[in-house]
Structure formats: structure tokens, C-alpha cells
Amino acid sequence: MKEKTLFLGAAAILLLVFVVATMTYNTGTAEQSARVVEQNRDRLVRMHSPTLGNAQAKVQIVEFLDPACETCRSFYPFVKEMMAANPEDIRLVVRYAPFHDGSEAVVAVLEAARKQGKFWPTLEALFATQEHWAPAHAPQVDLVWPQLEGLGLDLDRLRADMVAPEIGRVIGQDLADAEALNVTKTPEFFVNGEPLPRFGYEPLKAMVDAALAVR
Amino acid sequence: MFVESDPNPQMSTSPAARERESSAWMLAFAAWLVAMASTLGALFFGEVMKLPTCVLCWYQRIFMFPLALILPVGLFPFDRKLVRYALPLAVVGGLIAVFHQLLVAGVIPEEIRPCTQGVPCSQTVIEWFGFVTIPLLSVAAFSIVIALLVAVHLRSSK
Questions:
Q1: Domain count for chain A
Q2: Which of A96, A162, B96, B133 could lock A112 by a disulfide, CB 3.0 to 4.6 Å apart?
Q3: Is the same domain home to A90 and A34?
Q4: Contacts of B136 (CB under 8 A, 6+ apart)
């Protein structure tokens, strides 16, 4: 029986070390990312960032997104639902994190559409048709054009606007801010300047609800 | 204590034979400790630290993870033939680990690198004390497991 005790003891110790190391590591990284965000709070929102909702809203959600990201696509209606349930209380700020190769051109499409006052319909159309213009997660701007029909966009003007240097600067700034805020995956949310404790619908909803409840 | 569970009781009757078997068990147990620690370590790197797992790392996992399970099967009751089914896993895994290490060290040229898509296997994600990398840890773990299993074989075949 000595061997069995030895084996079980060793197995228990190894598993315990694993669990403790995991908890220690996770606590450390959570604290670190909170610190990073705290130090770079002024980088969360830029003057150029598209926003939706009441400017004086109690809750501000900053979302770093990539139009080619599937998870961003599935979070979008969820965020819209929360906003619809709490009109006037939630404001959404969109930041770009075009991490997919080829996404930057699609972000440029969004920015050019914004000049025609059609940012949100274009974003929604892009999310709705994502699989058509980003087959196998590879965004192709040539496949985007057919998806934008019916939005009333002047596509010739849009294509001309897309290459404007200020759009490149906006994307560059957003990417630099994403890096400074340690945003490595999309979507990444910040609720009133705080990062999510862990990724998911529930943590986001819980944070938004808590911020709404604050008087 | 092995008499009741031993498939060849006539071999274990003398105290010297029992002594040999007991030390063979300890060696196999040590091999399991290394395999289990490596398995948990790999899971820690991948699932907790979220380090990218390259293709070659996956192939090494394929041969290390089963060792963490199959060695205990051979420990209770002690099966001195466990070397027969554990050593092939360790040897193949060890060969992949050596290949990976050579790739990281730049000994193997660009053209035959197997993973150009996704995470490049030649990318170094961890470096401790200036020389300890994950592929090196893998080479070390597989080598220790192989050495211990060979020792188990030598002990129990006498």
C-alpha cells in the first residue's frame, strides 16, 4: 500500500501546484491589466471615435472591434439589446482593432461610409454579411461592395474617401491605443473605463448592470 | 507486497527479486512524475498563460499526455512490461522534441520547417536564464522519461 499512498500523494501535490499556480497567475495578470488600463485611461476614447447613444449616458461601453471578427459579430446584437433596454443610459464607443489581415481596408470602408453619415448601417451590413466578404476569415475588400448595396451609399465617393490619409491615422492611433491598453483579442470591452474581469456575455452584462445601478 | 498482484509470482519469491522489483517500480513512478509534471506544465503554458501552441508542440503533447495516463496503469499492479508500451511513446515524442530544438537553434534550415502557417515553431515564446526554452524543457522531459524506462527494463529483466 506504500506505493499507492506515494502515487496519490504525488498526484495530489502536482494538481495542487497546478491549481495554485493558475490562480496566482490569473490574479497577477488581472491586476496588471487593470493597472495598464488605469495608466492609459486617456487612450480609451478619442475625439475621432464613432459613438452611439446619449453623450451624457451613465454607462459608457468602449468596444475594440474588428469587422472581420466573428465574436464581434455575435456580440454586436447583444450590446444593441442592452442599449435598447436602457435607452439614454448607455453610450457605445467603437475603437478599431483590425487584427485580421486585410481588415484595415474594411475599417477604411467604415470610416469612408461614416463621412456619408452611414457608419452604423454599414457596420451592421458588414456584420450581417461577414461570411460573404471574409470567407475563411480572410477579409477581401473587393467582396465588400455588393454587400453595401441598398444602403444609399455613394460607392464611388466612398472608394475615393477610403484612401484619405486621416483614415490611416485614425486606424494607426486606434491600433496604438489597443496596444497600450493591452487589447490583444477582439472584441475587448471597457465599461466606464474598467476592463472585463473575464471575457463573456455574462461578465459584460454584470458590469453594465452594476454601472447602471450606481446612483 | 507484489506477490498477490504479480502475474509471474515465481519470479518474485526471493527477497533480492522483490528488492529489484521495488526499485523498478520507483523508477517507473519517477518517469510518471516527469510525464505528469510535463503534461500539467504544457497545459499551464497553453491554457493559463495562453501561449500559442505550434504544430510541433502539439505533436509532442500527443506523445507526452498519454504517458501521464498509461504509466499509472502499469504501476498498479506493477507490470514490468510497461516499458514495452510506454517507451515507444517516449521515443517518438523525444525525436520530435529534438527536431523542434534543432529548428529553434537554427540547425535545420528554413526550407524544411513544417509550419509556416499559424504559429511558427521557430518562434521563442519563453526564455528562462537565457537558455531554457519550452522545446528544451520538452527534450529534457522526454530524455529523462526514456532513461528511466530503460532503467526499469534493465532492473526487471535481470
A1: 2
A2: A162
A3: no
A4: B101
